[in-house]
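Why do we care about 3D structure at all? Because function follows from shape, and shape follows, mostly, from sequence. That is the central idea of this module. The next example makes it concrete: a single protein chain, its amino acid sequence, and then its structure expressed as tokens.
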Amino acid sequence: MTKIIPVLFISILETSSFFVPASAVGQRPALEDKDILKMASAARDALARQHIEGCIVIADPDGMPLYVQRQVDATPNCLASALAKAKSAAFFKTDTNTAYQSLLKGEVHNLAVPDLSSNPGGLPLYVGKTIVGSIAISTPDGEKDIAVAHAAASAL
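And the structure:
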């Protein structure tokens, strides 16, 4: 599943010395390599079942790529799209299909938001209420991107 990493919060006292009370040390879930590889494998399997090739990106909670794959016959621009979807899903903590659906309704204001992808196929990944990363799939078919991303995320 996921590992728990310690998170340290440092307080500065008026004397300018550092003080770390025990209550300030917390923990948060994080993706492990085995989680990433399991999701990537599930994504590849789901793409094969859909008879399509594409790009897979799994990112950390800051949207930084942890896993990137462009399949051999994938379209040339799928990698840029998958990277943008993964970053967007992590940054905004929402499915990129939400912004896509807004565009279909004529709500174009999202186009002005930096780093917000309006292409379906990017999902945030949560453990409980904590975001641990995101996954994004990019192919020429947004509906297939959504299905594959959900299949991969369910492997977590």
